[in-house]
Amino acid sequence: MDRLVDYERAWLVPYKISQKLNGKFSIEVLSQLSPEKVKELMSKPEALHRFPDKMSDVFHSAVKRIRDDYEDDAAQIWKGRPSSAEAVYRFLEFDGVGPKIATMAVNILARDFKIEFADTSSIDISTDRQVRRVFARLGLCPSEPTVEQVMYKARAIHPDYPGIIDLPCWEIGESWCRPHDPKCNKCYMKDLCPFPLSQKG
């Protein structure tokens, strides 16, 4: 769901669908829904996503994959301490999931839910606009860096777990390092960041 909408809206989609199903939100229940019913849940009375038709297909397909490939249990995706590369690959098998969302999913599992993987070296940083801006202003990458530049710089900085850098950079970008009127004096990187000095010059 985290595609071309604010993350707050994307993360509410499962909760809102569960409300429409009167709290009956399980793979067993969801797998009995037809594609048409999922589209109805995604679009009526209000659209839960900017692209309700496309996202309802993605949602229905994900439920089907969890049912068919993971025995109705999404936790099977990361069971048994797989390598981080294998876990990312398993998420990439889901329709609509690219490298950014796949690595973000594994990163959240490792960082926030303390799921153990055999390694963390394939958990890359999620190169959204906030992170790219912070990397540029910190002088880690050139101004307006590419996704690849940020990704490989993160790998160079922390090769064992590049994605661990993701959340702090995103928080800096979201809270202080704004595109306009940045709050440099409040940022905890202010003593190391060259950006405030460049603005004075």
Give a quick precis of the structure.
Helices cover 51% and strands 0% of the residues. It has 201 residues and is mainly alpha-helical.
Write the layout of secondary structure elements.
Layout: H1 7-20, H2 27-30, H3 35-43, H4 52-69, H5 84-92, H6 99-111, H7 129-137, H8 147-157, H9 166-175, H10 195-200
Helix pairs in contact: 3-4, 5-6, 7-9
* SSE ordering: HHHHHHHHHH
Number of helices: 10
Mean pLDDT: 93
Whole-number tally of structural domains: 3
Terminal Cα separation, in Å? 42 Å
Q: Give me the count of strands.
A: 0
Envelope shape: globular
User: What amount of the residues lies in strands?
Assistant: under 5%
For the biggest sheet, the summary is: none
Q: Please bin the fraction of helical residues.
A: 40-55%
Poorly predicted sequence stretches spanning 5 or more consecutive residues? none
Rg, Cα atoms, Å:
19 Å
Q: Which structural class do the helices and strands define?
A: mainly alpha
